[in-house]
Amino acid sequence: MPQLNPSPWFFIMLTTWFTFTFIIQPKLLSFTNTNPPSNKPLTTTLKTTPWAWPWT
Known about the structure:
With about 55 residues, this protein is an all-alpha fold. Helix content is about 40%, strand content about 0%. The longest helix is centred in the N-terminal third of the chain and has 23 residues, at about 5-30.
């Protein structure tokens, strides 16, 4: 049963995790958010009107 032989798959898994952890993840985390959230309170209240459904 070849799926029980971990020799090729274990190396592939370790290589993948190493690549993600030490190469890809720091590059992704170094990007800055272009639109950071603000702490301003919402001062304007939105006035909503009910929708007039044509079939009622």
